Amino acid sequence: MSLTRHFTRGRDLARSAGDHAADVFAPLALIGRGLRRHADWAKARWAATPKERRGPTLLVGAAVLLGVFLLPHGPLLAIVALVASAAWVGRSPKTPSEPVPDAADVKLPALYAALTPYFGGYDDPGALYRVDGEWKSAFSEWAFDQDGRLAALEIAYPAYFTDTEPAARARIEQVVQGKAGRSREYRFDWDEESNRLRVAALAPLPADVAAQRFVTAPGEIVLGFTDEAGSHRTIPVEQGGVTEQQPPVIWRVGPRSAEPHLLALGAPGHGTSTLLRSIALQALPHGDLVVVDGASTGEHACLVNRPGVHTVETSLHGALAALEWCARETERRLVALNAARHHGLSAPADVTRPLWILLDRLTELSELARAEGRTDPQELLEVPLRHGRAARVTVVFADVLEARERISPTVRTCTRTRVVLGPVNAESGPAALGGPLDIAPAAHTPPGRGYARIGAAAPVRLQVPVTVDPLDEDAPAPLREAVAALLPHRDARAGAAAPAPVLAEVVAEPAPANLVKDLTGEPVGEPAGGTPPVRPRPLW
Q1: What residues are paired with 516 via a beta bridge?
Q2: Is the distance from CB of 122 to CB of 132 less than 8 angstroms?
Q3: How far is CA 269 from the centre of its chain?
């Protein structure tokens, strides 16, 4: 056996012996520690006793010992009591746990230090924000949630801070959100009169509301759901198998609507196509649809050959023909409505039935048209946008956030109902909504999550209902079935298409070829050459 193995074995034996000895002599060490503490206590009491009382104390102690000695089994009981007391006193005291520091004492000083470069007045000796200042003088009210995260805070700032400039506000909001946590949204309420900034953390919106028939009046579209501060109304919705009351974001359309058209921008994969499908499902029971899918992704293939859907176009040629027909249809409706008012008659049903023009990523077709030297599809939207409210024509324009500069000025001017989905920053959010955004977005947002601004109202938070493509096999089956149940007839995968409805009300008016298709897929329009035929209008 080598010398190293001898040393290793000897060290193991010594360690084992020490552990056994510690286990054996642990009670003796405990009793000895207790006796030592008793002795220390006795010495302390003897030192604290006045000299004139030490004699009587010794006499009383001797009398007690004599009494114990004279009792039957007295010495044995005294020794047992002394050992038990020493064992109890000799226990190792538990180390008291350090008190949990207050979240305000940890996080608010850091926030105060971060705001000092922006609020501090270095030429003012009595500045509210100083390097050696006290944070309690700047923060008057605060609250933390159960997880120790900032829930509410009221910040005082000096009067010379430029709180009327959006850039200055954005810097402060960015600092506060960075110190409070970027995983949540925060609402900032700037009180310019009293130089106060109130910050409130917002609870996440429900993201499990599936597509369903909402309780709304004709002409009302549910864009999504918000919090209690964003809506004064609630509607019942099926959520998780139970009926809950949720505050909706209602967009009102029609001839009396002040904002009849909508522009939706968002990051790819964050729900702009989902929003279009949700609007289409709500509009189909009361109106007709013309859909243009500029990206040709097939997101709206579920609407093909559905009752009430005139056409779903994905090519440049089809989009130009569809939008040209929409412009002519808008003019025809205006003429018919004016004639009915002039003669004091009620307007025909085919001009009062709403017409929806849903456009998904039309800017891609605009670039293709520009490359081929053809008419920009956005130019054909001028008539429906400017006269759509009177003609019962509504335009919904959805595109990616990066394409905002490629959208024509007419579209941006006439679409004053705005929706932005996905992550935005201090610049892209207000630019897409057309106004300031007093809510700091979270760093990561689920699909369908964003903000909505209707006209000149303040922006509100928005969560679009989960409206998946029913033809997407990767989507959950319950969500696909919920969307398929809202379509005008049964899903083509589950059964045969519904029979074509009876056509009525023949109107002598030409229409562009290959535009309006009936339910069998055959185009109804003007053939090449010859006399324009009469165009039957379906009454769905």
Answers
A1: 524
A2: no
A3: 15
The identity of residue 162, as a single letter, is T
Alpha-carbon distance of 294 to 316, in angstroms, equals 8
Structure tokens at 397: 């324009």
C-alpha dihedral, 334 to 338 to 339 to 343, nearest 10°:
160
Strand 535-538 and strand 503-507: the pairing is: antiparallel
User: For the segment 30-62, what is each residue's pLDDT rounded down to a tens digit?
Assistant: 788 888 888 888 888 888 888 888 888 888 888
Listed in sequence order, the residues at least 6 apart from 146 whose beta carbon sits closer than 8 Å to its beta carbon are: none
Please provide the size of the chain in residues. Answer: 540
Q: Whole-prediction pTM value?
A: 0.73
Task: Supply φ then ψ for residue 216, to 5 degrees.
Answer: -140, 165
Distance CA 88, CA 79 (A): 14
**209 touches 249 (CB < 8 A):** no
Condensed to tens digits (0 to 9), the pLDDT of residues 449-484 reads 999 999 989 999 999 999 999 999 999 999 999 999
DSSP letter (8 states) at residue 442: P
Nearest in space to 533 (alpha carbons), one of 511, 502, 504: 511
